[in-house]
Amino acid sequence: MAARPPPLSPDVASGRIVESSSLTAHFTRIVVEVPEVERLCLPRGADTAVGIYFGANQYAPGRTYTVRHDDRPARRIVVDVLMHGDGIGTAWADQVAGGDTVVLAHANSWYRPPATADWQLLVADMSGLPALARILDTPPTTATTAIVELVDETDLAYLPDQPNVLVLPLFGTGNGVSDSALAQHVVSHTRAGGTGYCWFAGEARDARAVRKHLRHEQRWVPEQLDVMGYWRRSSADWDSRFALVGADLYSVYTRALDEGKSAKIAMEEFDEALERVGL
User: Fold this and answer.
1) Domains detected in the chain
2) What does the alpha-carbon distance between residue 14 and residue 256 come to, in Å, rounded to a whole number?
């Protein structure tokens, strides 16, 4: 008799693939049925994401994906997987079929522009495109500039067209092909007047550069930015180096929380600790 899998943690749910289809030249759309979707406690944030693990439990290999569409009455979610290189996410999306099982866990969201914001800057490369698209599903109430680093012009059609949004596309840089130009464009498009807000989803080192510029040079307060590294260049090398010092560095994050600091400040201090050791 086969052993039963261990019980799922409270924020973990099993899922079944309903269908998979090629959406664009660079994205595969996957529909997942999640019978106990309430276990995930999916946030209502526009950039809600969830970890999808390609096996029978949350210890299987997995990746985090934006919930592009959330149909809780039907107990289904939709994710658009960026097809690039030979990563495990691409390999999974390339072969996944209806009936396959996955485990979902650790839902989160970050996009929270303050009510006092007069304008916002939304910045993403291809990895952040689904999250940006979901943000733009709802017409922004403030003046919005979206800077996007794309593979080619066909990727622009993936984004919803909103009249109050100026989209500035960049081609031929970033996305693992060459150095990203996103950080430089954030610097040049940060307005001097009014209260701004920046949401960034791209490579981790570029996220660090954007955060440092806004926090230290522009003197923005933490509530004015949500800057995330969605992926990391040379991740295998980084992982091996982090494994040697990770426990000590992670204590910087937990200590900041213990001192009553916000999760944003704790993450900033953790990233500064990473930078000090060359990570």
Assistant:
1) 12-108 (2.40.30.10), 119-231 (3.40.50.80), 235-276 (no CATH)
2) 33
